[in-house]
Amino acid sequence: MDQMKKIETIGILTSGGDAPGMNGVIRSVTRTAIHHNIRVIGIRRGYHGLLRGDVIEMDARSVSDKSRVGGTFLMTARSETFTTAEGLQQACKMTKVFGLDALVTIGGDGTMRGAVDLAKMDVPVIHIPATIDNDVGCTDYTIGFDSALNTAISCVDKLRDTASSHERCSVIEVMGREAGYLALHVGIATGAEIILIPEQPFDRDKDIIGKILSARNRGKQHYIVVVAEGAAGGQEIAEYIETNTGTEARATVLGYLQRGGSPTYQDRYLASMFGIQAVKALMEDRINRVVIYKQGEVTDIDLFEGIEITKKISAESMKKANMLSI
Question: Hey, do 3-144+263-306 and 147-259 end up sharing a CATH topology, with the first three levels equal?
């Protein structure tokens, strides 16, 4: 029997933090599956919804006009119950109740760990990385990163305008509890004088105050500091700068603003390609896989191997950022 006949019904869910482009992935998976006569069940509210049996039948019209919209129309929720042995068993039971031959999960590293747990319980899974943090180790790119970058860059550009008008230091706190990819890329793209990330230890006096005073002595009159939330609090850094330099400093926390908004071209296009690849893997009898973007190509690798791969911001990347900030 070929795989097309084996995989008759798939479930799809989004979990964890939402990211622009998730709707595009749902659309792509749904339409690709339907094209190949595979039934699609949408699971609302992530793993929490799977436990409760909160599902909806999907068709081609269900996903019409969705790829341009941010967030996830299937909604997302975190589930403490799912992380327990009882919760995991209940989730597996629900895949049988609804006759799901495989599950497509969309989300970040936490969602991926949930997919691994289900795979260990013999639930066939395909995971698609989607998080604005871009911190899933096995892929060069996660859905949502480019959209969040563009939103943050637009905000920083506007804040620089007012910082220059008032000869002020503007401290912008972006998301990134454990990973500084967003802060690093935003900082480089906007010409920030200082970039603070969780992966790079820093000395407040040397790396912040020293840089600002040095720049001021060279005639600079306004400054931009981009800080990842996991490195330090934006308000705290602003107060420290103002106290120790006498320069007026204001903090802006971008927060959930970075998650919202219409996805960029890159996130729309790659969301489409990731969804196609997920269904292709199932049809070719490759289960328990994670779809990745590597060296410019969309492909898939073993889920259990993928979860073990980590990545970190290199010292060379920070060196380049510092080179540009003088």
Answer: yes
